[in-house]
Amino acid sequence: MPENTPSASELRPTHPLALAPVAAPPASVDGFVRRFLQNLNFDQGVALSTSDDNDRYLALAGTVRDYLMARWLDDQAQQSRQQSKTVCYLSAEYLLGRQLDNNLLAARLTEIATEALAQCGIDIDDLRALEIEPGLGNGGLGRLAACFIDSLATMSIPTIGYGIRYEYGIFRQAFADGQQVEQPDAWLRLGSPWDFPHPEAAQTISFGGRTETYDDDGVERTRWVPEWNVLAVPYNMMVPGYHNGRVNTLRLWRAVATNAFDLHTFNSGDYVASVRAQTFAENISKVLYPEDSTPQGKELRLQQQYFFVAASIADFVEHVLPDGFDLTKLPERVIFQLNDTHPVIGVPELMRVLVDEKGMEWDAAWAITQKCFAYTCHTLLPEALEVWSVDLLGRLLPRHLEIIYRINDAFLLEVRERFGDDEMLIRDMSIIGEHPFRSVRMAYLATVAGSKVNGVAELHSQLLRDNVLKDFARMWPEKFTNVTNGVTPRRFLRLANPELSTLITETLGAGWTVDLERLRGLEAYADDPEFRERFAAVKAANKRRLSRVLAARDGTTIDDGHLLDVMIKRLHEYKRQTLKVLHIVSAYDEIVSGRVPVEKVQPRTFLFGAKAAPGYAMAKHIIHLINAVGEVVNADPRVEGRLKVLYPSNYNVTLAESIIPAADLSEQISLAGKEASGTGNMKLALNGALTIGTDDGANVEIRQLVGDDNFFLFGMSEPEVEALWAEGYRPADFYHEDERLRRAIDLIAAGAFSGGDRSVFEPLISNLLYDDRFMALADFGSYLDAQERVDAAYADQDAWVRSAILNVARSGFFSSDRAMRDYLDRIWHATPVH
Ligand code: 26W
To answer: Keywords in UniProt for this one (predicted)?
Structure first.
């Protein structure tokens, strides 16, 4: 460098504009138009007259971004200056839904933008419809993470959401002959206006290799000599709070090959091999695993988990904390919340950073680590608890495996001190399982390391303490707590249901959006005929709106006067979509066999939304059956106008936002003791659907709050389920004893929905009759009785609407704002920074 050229750090800005903080464009229609046109011209490179809708959508998104930018930059700068604690939410999934509407709402720009675009001759709804939602999650767990970061921003809590920027999110579902086919979700295809790459803040993440010990001034230390590495490039997304001017960050990592990767590892001079090597590295963030609940033990998935967690920890320690930060004070500045076991490899990673890299003593590092993590469990299914084979983990992360062994040794010593040399107990509690293969039990590691362990509904937390983690709960009762899930009222009421929102605001004022308990005020109107009428009119309008959405995408409709009965959730045996189908088949059979006069039947539209994991054969049979039943029922003139089955493909957040406000009946029919919480149940109740449900997950709390009169309870309780197992469950007994059940099953088995082919649904039928792990047959009778109560209740529209209003009024507890307050009080101990 020539002598007189100043280095970058010596250049100091002198221009006044360079010294001023970033300013948002003026919050006026003119200001918006100007900025929009600028973005169209300078970012998209088109004139208004030559732009297509996608250009316009991108320019609109860019404009909304510009308005939020000043606050975002400010909040990011503040993050390292402030002394307060940051919540680092570690989640492999964020099921965000569309961004445009939410960000317009948060920034109070909805009206301005609508008018500004109208003045440019553009209908904003046309652009809204173009946005492809980032489907970076499977279901409840991913959507919960999205609700939580929305609430944390709205409550001004310093938060960074950390995750993975999958190039392909959850697959697109299509149906061919009633069967699911999966298509790749290329959500980035048309550009991604909501995220900002920061290659300068990339982290190098290592894998493989070996460990070695060395002498460090008389102290023996260990270091990891990895074999290959990959760059983690952060992409930042804005997480605006609602009307509070705060913008938090969601930082999603993308895997990019390093040069070192092909030079060192595939050191060959073979160009083709080195490009192939790049592809190998970049595969890490290529695709979201579409499995929910059954972990596959796939190496790439462990790579994903370590990749994003290691990058996040390094990012926080190196970039967010100020230089020279005293790491013994780490617990005062951060809590890493583990969203299920997927990020648990972060525990040995933080130990490695503190001990191997920062030279800390083991015990000191462990004390810090235990304060910095907390663990949320989202399941009760034993097969859903992640384990990694020692083989695989040791090959991919040899140093981490050593650390896990050492954590386990110390832990088992503690167990012996507490409970004596009970070898059975030691084997049961060990972080290392021996059968069917040597493996690391990630839930146990999380429980040992975490400052707190929580379930996601009262019943779930109780069952964790009593069953899944009972020995740990005995050892550390104070570690265990509950935080019942919640959902964001901004997206799932204010945005999804604008007409009900207007009615509520006119009745109670606007405060409910951030203080959902205020909905209680609606109780006083449940008996007010005028309010009821308006409420009913909103529901009817929402049904018509949904009908238009379905007509446009599938050519199907919902008829006026139909009870809309919805079951929207991942397809899983424990959730019992089969029970729902048996009900439909039975209702159909009752009419066509003349046992019930058709004119006595309450018209109903059954609506399903569900994706099955691509490798889950039984779930795919169930999808096929739903579609097959729908095809027959919808074509049969004998039930026309009475029964209809709709199964729009590719259920996602966007479709949920149309379905939920229209629903009358919410199906929450899992076998008691299997659904950790559920969150769709909350969204539906909040939008005035009545629940038909078992005493499972958060249904228990919904029923307690809305009252037995406004909830259709059926089925065995969890203790009754246990008792039936203990006594020996024989599903065929129920088949023989219940005529309605027998007729429904026989109809399917006889090929009534498969063109006479008895083989098509044979696997499903024999599974029900001879296995039925989730006891659909045992609960069938009780379910049908409850459905009869539903029909009777719906016939009295006045009473039904009253119940629906009470459901809304009493659902305030299920705001994710409340859930965040509970996490803050019971687990995080962080405070707002305004
Ligand atoms: C492939 C491994 C795997 C295992 C479990 C992937 C994803 C999971 C998740 C834990 C599945 C999930 O979404 N669980 C749901 O979490 C919601 C939020 O707490 C709860 O409301 C649901 O009851 C629970 O099923």
So the answer is: Carbohydrate metabolism, Glycosyltransferase, Pyridoxal phosphate, Transferase
Q: What is the pLDDT of residues 575-613, one digit of tens each?
A: 999 999 999 999 999 999 999 999 999 999 999 999 999
Taking the centre of ligand 1 as the mean of its atom positions, its distance from the CA of residue 747, in whole angstroms, is 34
Which one from 441, 570, 576, 740 is the annotated catalytic residue? 570
Going from the Cα of 379 to the center of ligand 1, the distance in angstroms, rounded, reads 6
Instruction: For ligand 1, say whether the CB of 804 is within 6 Å of any of its atoms.
Output: no
Is residue 812 within 8 Å of 696, Cβ to Cβ? no
834: tokens are 């305004």
Q: Which of 772, 763, 664 is nearest to 716 (CA)?
A: 772
Do the Cβ atoms of 628 and 754 come closer than 8 Å? yes
Tell me which of 534, 569, 621, 703 is the catalytic residue. 569
Q: At what angle do helices 398-419 and 362-372 cross, to 10 degrees?
A: 90
Active site residue 243: no
688 CA distance to ligand 1 middle (Å): 25
Instruction: Tally the C-alpha atoms within 13 A of residue 365's C-alpha that lie toward its C-beta.
Output: 19
Superfamily of domain 83-98+133-485+821-828: Glycogen Phosphorylase B; (3.40.50.2000)
Task: Single out the catalytic residue among 441, 575, 604, 642.
Answer: 575
Maximum alpha-carbon separation in the chain: 98
Task: Kindly report, residue by residue over 116-125, the tens digit of the pLDDT.
Answer: 999 999 999 9
Q: Is 570 a catalytic residue?
A: yes
- Cβ of 93 closer than 6 Å to ligand 1, yes or no, is no
The upper half-sphere exposure of residue 611, i.e. CA atoms within 13 Å in the direction of its Cβ, equals 25
Distance CA 612, CA 761 (A): 17
Does residue 456 surpass a pLDDT of 80?
A: yes
Please give the pLDDT value at position 111. Answer: 98
Domain borders along the chain are 25-82+102-132, 83-98+133-485+821-828, 489-814
Q: Residue 527 phi/psi, 5° resolution?
A: -105, 10
Q: Which of helix, strand or coil describes residue 251?
A: strand
Does the active-site annotation cover 286?
A: no
**724 CA to middle of ligand 1, Å?**
26
**Closest ligand 1 atom to Cα of 676:** 23
Q: Is 455 in the pocket of ligand 1 (CB under 6 A)?
A: no
Q: Give the number of other Cβ atoms within 10 Å of residue 27's Cβ.
A: 12
The CATH number of domain 489-814 is 3.40.50.2000:
yes
Share of the chain above pLDDT 90, in %: 92
Q: Which atom of ligand 1 is nearest to the CA of 144?
A: 18
What is residue 491's DSSP assignment? Answer: I
The response to whether residue 673 sits with its C-beta less than 6 Å from ligand 1 reads no
**pLDDT value of residue 272:** 73
Single-letter amino acid code for the residue at 504: I
SS (H, E, C) 554-589: HCCCCCCCCEEEEEECCCCHHHCHHHHHHHHHHHHH
Q: Tokens for 36, please give them.
A: 């929009």
Residue 159 φ/ψ, nearest 5 degrees = -140, 140
Of 679, 703, 802, 810, which is the active-site residue? Answer: 679
Helix (H, G, I), strand (E, B) or coil at 757: coil
Alpha-carbon torsion angle 517, 522, 526, 529, nearest 10: -170
629: left (phi over 0), alpha (psi -120 to 50) or beta: alpha
378 part of the active site: yes
CA of 614 to the centre of ligand 1 (A): 16
The reply to whether ligand 1 has any atom less than 6 angstroms from the CB of 340 is yes
Q: Same CATH topology for 83-98+133-485+821-828 and 489-814?
A: yes
